[in-house]
């Protein structure tokens, strides 16, 4: 999972840390480990994690949660 948020740990300090990610539309949650950092302001989730969170299929339809 790539962490791309304006708050929280940055750079090397973020690698290996965990975040609780919530699909705000359904309330589904999971914990992810940060392995990289990107610059688009979101989380780049592994497809298996995305599918765990996208319990109603809306994220797949929109291309994001």
Task: List the main descriptive attributes of the protein structure presented here.
65 residues; alpha+beta; Barwin-like endoglucanases; two-stranded parallel ribbon; two-stranded antiparallel ribbon; 2 helices; 4 strands; 22% strand; globular
Structure description:
With 65 residues, the protein is of the alpha+beta class. Helices cover 18% and strands 22% of the residues. Strand 2 and strand 3 form a beta hairpin.
What is the total number of structural domains?
A: 1
What topology, given as strand order, has the largest sheet? 1-4
**Overall body shape:** globular
Name the helicity range: 10-25%
Pick out the low-confidence regions. none
* Termini Cα gap: 14 Å
Structural category is: alpha+beta
What is the CATH T-level topology? Barwin-like endoglucanases
The major sheet is characterized as:
2 strands, parallel
Number of strands: 4
What is the overall pLDDT average?
Answer: 80
- What is the CATH architecture assignment? Beta Barrel
CATH superfamily: RlpA-like domain
- Give the percentage of residues in beta strands: 15-25%
Counted by DSSP, the helix tally is 2
Radius of gyration (Å): 12 Å
Element string (H = helix, E = strand): EEEEHH
Secondary-structure blueprint:
Layout: E1 2-3, E2 18-22, E3 29-33, E4 36-37, H1 47-53, H2 58-62
Parallel strand pairs: 1-4
Antiparallel strand pairs: 2-3
Give a short overview.
The protein contains two helices and four strands. The longest helix has 7 residues, at 47-53.
